Amino acid sequence: xxxxxxxxxxxxxxxxxxxxxxxxxxxxxxxxxxxxxxxxxxxxxxxxxxxxxxxxxxxxxxxxxxxxxxxxxxxxxxxxxxxxxxxxxxxxxxxxxxxxxxxxxxxxxxxxxxxxxxxxxxxxxxxxxxxxxxxxxxxxxxxxxxxxxxxxxxxxxxxxxxxxxxxxxxxxxxxxxxxxxxxxxxxxxxxxxxxxxxxxxxxxxxxxxxxxxxxxxxxxxxxxxxxxxxxxxxxxxxxxxxxxxxxxxxxxxxxxxxxxxxxxxxxxxxxxxxxxxxxxxxxxxxxxxxxxxxxxxxxxxxxxxxxxxxxxxxxxxxxxxxxxxxxxxxxxxxxxxxxxxxxxxxxxxxxxxx
Length: 354
Ligand SMILES: C[S@@+](CC[C@H](N)C(=O)[O-])C[C@H]1O[C@@H](n2cnc3c(N)ncnc32)[C@H](O)[C@@H]1O
What we know:
It contains 13 helices and eleven strands. With 354 residues, it is α/β, with parallel strands linked by helices. The longest helix is centred in the middle third of the chain and has 18 residues, at 147-164.
């Protein structure tokens, strides 16, 4: 079956659009797409319903999003789920309304101070950009759009905010503000949605383990967090913009309280137990797991599940093939890491779920 994007060069959106790949996101698999496409073509080319259960940016699901395939994408962050809803669920009949809503957003300006300006101005964004984000988000809520149109409008604001944020790719820290650069890069654009490919896809914002035990499919792609860095903390600003519920924020990086941020078992000492549970309970014929051997020398960034443990869990469900992909990786502390590898573990499932 054909692919939706060129895995070697997936970024092909026309000028004035955001492509799905135009985000800075830790663990994003853009650079592994060619290998993932190769493994799927070799092992399960006939897979029709593909489930990307920890979808993040959604680039892996997007790669396979061509009819007659059905793509199921899931992520427990509301910001990701909204972006995914726009890219995987909008159909040709939605296009006019989406373009109209985002066109109207371009004319929305901030009329004065607001929650986003007060909390994020001078931190992740300039005061002007932060206020504009607030004005756009409130406008979207006030317009009472249909869910898929609202998702596309919010997605457009999230992409513009990510591009304008003065960060190194996540929101657990910020760099000193360079006004001109930050202002220049806040641009509301249309999402480059593959409208004609959509129609049978499903999007969820749920716990991946629970969903994997309920939903049936041909191929389950599993790309959980590998280390102790919680995505709910790394992307708290985008999550707050997506939800727009305006909770009280605290601390230098203006986070919502810890219990308001999704927490993943995969970022704790229970990571191996969570993976064992998911593998044992999933209802598919093919499993493909991404992981790596990161040992950065910094506790928080080290991978939590050893390769041998992953292989042992998967072999309880069927025959396992391991692909080890040498992968140049850079950390601020230790520079280029020697021996860094990305893993793809494929399992042809022969035994039923528990
Ligand atoms: C390594 S990233 C996935 C990257 C993705 N494959 C891509 O290419 O962009 C892991 C994702 O899992 C999500 N996540 C973590 N724990 C989860 C859980 N229990 N249920 C659902 N999603 C979860 C995080 O929000 C994050 O987006």
